[in-house]
Write a structure and sequence with these properties.
two-stranded antiparallel sheet, flat, 6 strands, binds zinc ion, mainly beta, about 0% helix, single chain
Length: about 110
């Protein structure tokens, strides 16, 4: 496990959108400004590392849960379906093949 700066609140620990009140704490890091994540991590391609869901700029990214980074274990390869973008071309939702990570676990052939 490693600790990274919370992408959703940019490490401030406050709700970036003031949904509840301007003193509301960030729901992703519970106000700590940092989040724990399992290594190895890559930047979340779906939200471009911002932690914000691209289609509704006030909620957390469903791929990385607002952390801005995702865990990719083992040998991985670029997803053939979204070509590494993490986005399904037809819907704009996270790619089903890779879960929005842009890479997927490489299967032994
Ligand atoms: Zn946060
Ligand atoms: Zn994300
Ligand atoms: Zn994909």
């Amino acid at each position: 496990m490693t600790e990274i700066k919370c992408a959703f609140c940019k490490g401030k620990g406050k709700d970036p959108f003031d949904l509840l009140s301007e003193f509301a704490t960030c729901q992703v890091c519970a106000g700590r400004g940092k989040v724990k994540i399992e290594e190895p991590v890559i930047k979340c391609v779906y939200c471009k590392g911002t932690g914000v869901y691209p289609h509704n700029g006030r909620v957390t990214c469903t791929v990385c849960n607002g952390k801005g980074s995702v865990t990719v274990k083992g040998p991985s390869e670029v997803c053939f379906k979204c070509k590494g973008a993490g986005v399904a071309i037809d819907s704009g939702f996270p790619c089903i093949e890779c879960g929005g990570k842009g890479v997927k676990f490489k299967k032994a052939r």
